[in-house]
């Protein structure tokens, strides 16, 4: 199974993601914002990164851009998990290197299906 980093300033969202994905057999690490996520990503290798869009210190879009500069994350899938649904923001995320977009609220089985699909690529 995969090693996944979830980045969100909401502890409850991080916990929900962790419980859902751990139930699917994945190992999940947590980060509280984009800066923390970048630091943890640099220290460990992850098979997938799931990040919120709106966070303090560094937002998800900036984090995706910075991750894509790291050689070990060029081909690693990055999903944005957010309340945002604006088509323009989705285009910006795709241009920054995001693999996909999941809108909150989400169901655990929906999250697992999307993660499995992205990891199978």
TrEMBL record:
Record Pfam families: Response_reg
The record, for PROSITE patterns, names: RESPONSE_REGULATORY
Designated name of the protein: Response regulator
Q: Which domain of life is it from?
A: Bacteria
Question: Where are the 4-aspartylphosphate residues found in this chain?
Answer: 52
Question: What keyword terms does UniProt attach to this protein?
Answer: Phosphoprotein
Q: Which InterPro entries match?
A: Bact_response_regulator, CheY-like_superfamily, Sig_transdc_resp-reg_receiver
Signal sequence segment: none
Organism in which the protein naturally occurs: Rhizomicrobium electricum
Annotated Response regulatory domain ranges read: 3-119
């Amino acid at each position: 199974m995969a090693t996944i980093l979830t980045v969100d300033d909401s502890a409850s969202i991080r916990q929900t993601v962790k419980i859902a994905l751990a139930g699917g057999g994945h190992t999940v690490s947590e980060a509280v914002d984009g800066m923390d996520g970048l630091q943890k990503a640099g220290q460990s290798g992850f098979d997938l990164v799931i990040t919120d869009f709106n966070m303090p210190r560094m937002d998800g879009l900036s984090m995706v851009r910075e991750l894509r500069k790291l050689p070990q994350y060029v081909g690693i899938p990055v999903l944005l998990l957010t309340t945002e649904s604006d088509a323009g923001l989705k285009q910006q995320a795709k241009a920054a290197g995001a693999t996909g977009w999941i809108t909150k609220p989400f169901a655990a089985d929906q999250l697992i299906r999307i993660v499995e699909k992205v990891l199978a690529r």
